[in-house]
C-alpha cells in the first residue's frame, strides 16, 4: 500500500516546480516528456509495482527492500533529468526545485523500505546504505546538477564549507570543555556525596532551561564582563559570538557526561573493589585497572548522547552570532528561501547521525573486545 | 497537602507576581543597561505572551497525545506489531533533528507563525507518549485480557474498557513528560514568529537589545523550571 501511494504521489502533487529565480515562490511545472525522463519514470513505476507484489509474501521481503532502493534512485534520477529538461528553455536565473509530490514520495519509499526491513526483523541498514551509495553516484555523475538545491550549494560552496567547519569547531570545542569539567567533577563526586548532589543539581537545572533562554542569560553577564575587563575582548570573548555559544552548549552536555561517568565508575561491584584494595592497589591503580575498564561501555553511551546533543545545540549558536550551519538556516528563514534552509539542515542531520553511528560503532567494538 | 506542594505554589506565585511587576521595573533596566534607549520590554503584555506560550504547548501536547496513543494502540495490535521497529526508528529520527531545524523546514510550507512551531513541538513530544502507551498497554496482564474475552467482550470494548483504563497511569505520566518538554521547547518558536515568552529574546537579538533578551530569557527559564518541578512533584505522588 505504501508503495502504491509512493508511486502515485509525484503525479498527484507534482514532481517539480519552477521558480523564476531563487527567491520568488515556485509554481508547479508539468513533466517534460523527453526519453530519459520517461525511461526513469517507467523504472520507478515498475519498481513500485514489484515492491507492492513482493511485499505481499513474507519470503520476498529482501527483494522488496532492494526494489525500494531502485524506486528511490529512479525517483531521484527522474527529478534530476526532468529539472535539466525544464531549465533548457528557461531563463538563466530560473530554478527547478522538487515539489511536494517528490518529498512525499521520498518519505513513503523510505517508509516502505523500512517496513520491508522491519518485516523480516532487521534494521533497514541495507536500504539506507544502498540508497546512499546510489544517490552519491548520481550526484557525482552530475545527474542532479539542475536541481535548485545543488545550484544553491554550488553558488555558496565556500560559505557552506566555512559554516560546516565553524559548526564542528563549536560543537567539538563545547564537547571538549564539557569533558574537561565533567571528568574531574565525576571523580570528585565519587568520593564526596555532597559534591555529587551539587553537581547533579546544577546539571539537571541547566538541562531544564530552554537553550534559547540559556544563551540569552549568558549574553548579558559576558557582555558586562568584557565591558569591565576590555582585555577579554582581545581574546575573542564577548556577549555575542562563539564564546557564549560554546559555554552554553557545554553546560547542556554536563548532565549526560557527568551522570554516565558516575554510573560507569560505580559499575564495578564493591567486592571486586575490596579485593583490589586488599591486593595493595592504590586508589589511582584501582581507578585505572578496575573502574575505568568496567565502566567504559556506559561512559561511551554518555559520550554518544552528548556528541549528538552538541551538534544539534550548535545550530542555535547562530542566534547569538556564533556562526555555524545555523547561520545558513537563519539566513534562509530571513529570505524564506527553502533551499538555503535545507542546505543548513541537511548537514546538521547528517553530522548528528554520523556522530551517533561513529560512537555506536565504538560501543560495539568495545563490547566485542570485552 | 502532600510534601513539596507548598514550595511549588510559592514559586508559581512569585513567577506570576514577577510578571505583573515587570512593566514597572524600567529604572532597574535603565540602570543595568545605560546605553539602551528602551531597555524595558513593553511591546506586548507578559501575560498575553504567557497565555500564548501555554496555549501552544498545551495544543502540541494534546495532539502528541492523540497521535502517540493511537500509534501505541496500533503498535500493540496483531498486525501492527511488525511496524514497531519502524515507529521507533521514525520517532527516534524525529528526535535527532533539532526543533529549530523542523521549524525552519516547515516555514516555506506553512508560513510564519504558530503552525511550524506546533508541528515541531508535536514531533518532539510524541515519542514519550508513544513509549508510555506501548509500555502501559503491554503491562496489562494476559490473564485479565483472557477473562475479558471470556465474558464475550469485543476487541474494541476490551480496548476501551479494560486495556486503556489499566494503562492510564503510565500513559498519563508520558503525557505529562510531553507537556513539560513542549513548554520548554515552545520558546524556540519565536524564531518563526510565534508569539510566546521567547519573543522578547528573538526581538531583542534582532534589534541588538540585550535587556529584552535578558528579560525574555529569565521568564522562559523560570517557567520551564516551574514546569519541571511540577512534573517531579506529580510523578512522585
Automatic annotation (TrEMBL), chain B:
It is a multi-pass membrane protein. It is found in: Cell membrane. Belongs to the binding-protein-dependent transport system permease family. It comes from the Bacteria. GO terms for cellular component: plasma membrane. Residues 50-231 form the ABC transmembrane type-1 domain. The chain crosses the membrane at residues 7-26, 46-74, 86-112, 166-190, 210-227. GO terms for biological process: transmembrane transport. Pfam families: BPD_transp_1. SUPFAM superfamilies: MetI-like (SSF161098). Coiled coil: none annotated. Keywords: Membrane, Transmembrane, Transmembrane helix, Transport. It comes from Teichococcus deserti. This is ABC transporter permease. Gene3D superfamilies: MetI-like.
